[in-house]
Amino acid sequence: MKQILKNIKRKCLGSLIECCGYIISQGDKRIKVMPCKNMAIHPHLRFEIGPYDTIEAFEEGDIIACYHSHPTDNDNFSEEDLRNSKSLKIPFVLYCEKNDTFKFFDGNKGKVKKVFKETELRKCLNL
Question: Coil, strand, or helix at residue 103?
Answer without folding.
Answer: strand
